[in-house]
Amino acid sequence: MGQSCLQCTKYLLFIFNLIFWLGGCGLLGVGVWLVITQGNFVTLSSSFPSLTAANFFIAAGSVIMVVGFLGCLGAVIENRCLLLSFFVVLLVIFLLEMIIGILFLCNQETINSYAKEELKNGLQFYNTSGNIGLTNGWDIVQTDFRCCGVVHYEDWFDVLNGTKVPTSCCFKLVDDCSTNSNTWWKDACYEKVIEWLKENVVAVCIFGLCIPVLQILGLVSSLVMYCQLVKMEKQYS
Which DSSP state fits 143? Predict the structure, then answer.
């Protein structure tokens, strides 16, 4: 009975981590593809220029691949050390996610104020040398969300010297649209993004809940298998 339970846990843990590892490979592949094809793709922060979509996918994919590999290998060879390492690493990641989530919920106003100020400071690097990622990021956000500026289209005035905005603020691409206020989106980008998140809150919550649920399943499976291996070793000894 004990051997059958061990084999069942082993295969479940292996399948779980194989899917986990393949997901990491996918994220890493997307990140590398973005680096190759898009360069510094989409960053809006001046203080953290490395915080790009490509780098995020690469970092997340790499971590997931390492964790998934530890779990797969530990399950296949029934190695207690690898299983324990997998459990500890996954537990640390899970706790960090919970701490970050709680801090975010408790400090939303402070985070919102900081984010707006940071985004405004980043506008001054728009369309400047070495900041293609930030420029692309703002053009994509303003075009896709049909908005202009962080909290107001006038955010661009100090940056572009006068009553002028980027062409990505224009809903009608005519000559000199960047100086014609009648052709600009008037909504603020920060508020438009917040509205989009609220409209898709169900999908965001489902995605946000799936990650910790999968992590808890991985933690429980690895711990069960580890305990079964310890129990069997004691029986044989």
Answer: H
Tens of pLDDT, residue by residue, the chain (237 residues): 456 777 788 888 888 888 888 888 888 888 788 777 655 545 555 555 566 667 778 888 898 888 888 888 888 888 888 889 999 998 998 999 889 889 988 988 898 888 888 888 888 888 887 777 778 888 988 999 999 999 999 999 888 877 889 999 998 888 788 888 889 999 999 999 888 888 887 777 787 788 888 888 888 888 888 888 888 777 776
Distance CA 61, CA 54 (A): 10
* Rg value, the chain, Cα: 24
User: CB count, 10 Å around CB of 73?
Assistant: 16
Euclidean distance between CA atoms 147 and 29, whole angstroms:
31
Quote the CA–CA distance of 148 and 45 in Å, as a whole number.
16
* The one-letter amino acid at 170: C
Q: What is the pTM of this model?
A: 0.73
Using DSSP's 3-state secondary structure scheme, residue 127 falls into coil
Report the alpha-carbon distance of residue 65 to residue 50 in Å, rounded. 21
Helix (H, G, I), strand (E, B) or coil at 184: strand
